[in-house]
């Protein structure tokens, strides 16, 4: 059995999934996100995990909570980026950070290989 299939998503991953859905237009301004309890049950996670994901999206300015009603995709003022645009920018930024991280990891490997090939340099003197 594949452990990836049984692993439950964390709050960051749930927020990313919803952010992608906002960017794709699945959820638009004024749309209500799934209720926390039902969504938690569907994903097999705790209610707190879903609430933490929604909190992250609120902090990013993509959604707003309406007491006693639910969590909704924000409608923006004129001149502000729409939640869809903001979500797409965040998704693009995450992809760029991942790409840069991969490049940096490759560079670190190359530096280690060069240092190993050069051999120890401490204590050497020109005589």
UniProtKB/TrEMBL annotation:
Q: Which UniProt keywords apply?
A: DNA-binding, Pyridoxal phosphate, Transcription, Transcription regulation
The Gene Ontology terms for molecular function here are: DNA binding; DNA-binding transcription factor activity
InterPro entries, A to Z: HTH_trans_reg/aminotransferase, Tscrpt_reg_HTH_GntR, WH-like_DNA-bd_sf, WH_DNA-bd_sf
**Domain of life assignment:** Bacteria
> Which Pfam families did the record assign?
GntR
Q: Which residues are in the HTH gntR-type domain? A: 8-76
The name this protein carries in UniProt is: DNA-binding GntR family transcriptional regulator
Originating species: Streptomyces eurocidicus (Streptoverticillium eurocidicus)
């Amino acid at each position: 059995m594949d452990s990836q299939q049984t692993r439950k998503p964390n709050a960051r991953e749930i927020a990313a999934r919803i952010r992608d859905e906002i960017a794709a237009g699945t959820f638009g301004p004024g749309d209500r996100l799934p209720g926390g309890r039902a969504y938690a049950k569907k994903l097999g996670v705790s209610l707190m995990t879903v609430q933490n994901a929604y909190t992250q999206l609120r902090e990013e300015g993509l959604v707003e909570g309406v007491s006693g009603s639910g969590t909704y995709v924000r409608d923006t003022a004129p001149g502000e980026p729409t939640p869809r645009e903001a979500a797409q920018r965040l998704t693009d930024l995450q992809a760029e950070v991942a790409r840069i991280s991969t490049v940096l990891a490759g560079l670190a490997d190359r530096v280690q290989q060069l240092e190993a090939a050069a051999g120890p340099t401490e204590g050497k003197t020109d005589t």
